[in-house]
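Consider the following assembly input.
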Amino acid sequence: MQLRAVFATATATALALVTHAACAQAVVEADARGGVYHDSDATTIVTSAVAARAWPHERLSISGRYLADVITTASVDVVSAATDRWDEVRHEGSGGLGYKDADRSASGSYIYSVENDWRSHTGVLALAHDTLDHRLTIGLSGSFVYNEVGRADDENFDERLLGGTGNLDTTIVASKRDLVSVTYSLGYASGYQASPYRFVRFDGPLPGAQIAIAERHPDTRARHAVGARWNHHIEPDMALRSMMRGYVDDWGIASGTVGLDYVIGVGVFEMAILSRAYVQKAATFYREVYASELDYMTADRELATFFDVFGGLRLGFDVRDAGPFESIHGDVLGKAFYYKFFDFLPLPERYGLIAELGLGAAL
Amino acid sequence: MRSRSLARPACAAALVIGCVSSSACAPVPAWQRGFHAKPKMQPDPNPLAASFEQHVNEYREGSTGGHGTVGGGCGCN
Amino acid sequence: MSTARRIGIRALAYAAVLLVAGCRELDAEVAPSELDPHYFRCNVEPVLIKSCGQLACHGHTERFFRVFGRNRLRYGLPPEKRNEPLLDGERSHNFASAAAFVDREEPALSLLLTKPLDQKAGGAYHGGANEYGMGDVYLAKDEDDFAALAAWAAGAKADPSCLQPGEAQGGSAP
């Protein structure tokens, strides 16, 4: 029933795209991407996605996407849920409409995602306006997500998590070689935010015999992030793409992210050297070992103190006017990553690889 | 101590916003924006690839947001 | 720049950060449990030892919910002393372990109640029920033992005199 809704969303969008593609004036883009994630914590995720966008009218676009994640894991997370292994599939379907004229753009989309113990509905609205002779773009976007949280094999577990985000964007042509953008994001979530599978231990009356308690997270969470991007062109055909982000939330997490990609173009080919680093301070209520029972307790390593670094290479091509196609493009990407957890006993570090293959065409 | 550690990213963000705002005052005429039209200079040249990356990071890190949501600025709408 | 101005700017910056980050107190210790130890000792602990504490079930050190009981899981006692009366520490652990599975705001949703209750009667997923394929520990809420657990979670109290000498020594030996 849930899967049917995902396919209904994706199929309706695909039908609309094909119908419009059949019209003489239509322009259609289609992309497919597949990726494999594997880490030292016994987790493998295979992700496949197809996306398409059509312009039935010069100013109007319609888009759709279908994505599937196949997850196999025997992670320490699974052990803390007293299970041996999880295999699950997540399906996501989305459809959207867009409008764009010389100075303004607007878009709206709906995303439906389902897995065996989670179902979510997301609505996204975005507006952008170019000003100062197109030197400055100001964007405003918001999303609302309604999650139904379940528990595998437990028909009586039924929780809700509602969330909303707002983003304020400015993108500026800083010089003929530089494009800079700054984004502020405010997010708020209310509802069940723990994992129904995880238990936390704390010291009990007997040494060595700890007491277990179901993970308890606060019901609300307010998040603030400020991100900046700076793309700098280097002649003849290279670019430095950098980003940094600062983040704080009212759970006490503070984090910083920096990223730098060096993109080199050679004719229709492109090579990018990718790098990213992230460092995070733990949530206020996170403890490596709980000495006593607290109001909020977690075994979620994503709330611990850690850093991660990613490095990789992307090779791509983009051929214009190839037969009936306006363009054909594709890329292969390989990344290695390393996480160092400073206060998460079951997993002091994690490393792994990500490989992706993307192909697309515009007609 | 807590507010001191939080002040650093906020100051860094304020610095970036200040630099960006002052840069906007230097006009770049449309005929000098050829570089900005290149895909590698776009804020989000490959949305599908970006969504893969964002999914990997947001699932495994405690932070979200701060990513650009709209493109533009290059006059190549 | 004058010192006063520098301090003023810093104060403003910190105020802005605090406004942004919020200042909730999230790591407070919970208040001591108000669950009644006497009712537990007389009516709940014997049920837990009898129905949950088997060595293959929650009488096992690797289980999140762990129950010590006579002739079952013991704390540091050799096998030949397994039938000794429960130690105070073991009783304290049983109480704390059960209390941690009680939802103080909504006692009826406590894992202590939903786990052993069959899903058809409104219970939660329980590995034990699946393992033996005979339904969960309690098939209905009106079973006496379940009612004792539910009453304790809801705040029932017992007179300390419920403990008669020689009785309730950690449940009868199976």
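The helical segments of chain C are 3-21, 37-51, 88-99, 111-114, 127-132, 144-153. Ask yourself how this observation constrains the way the partners meet.
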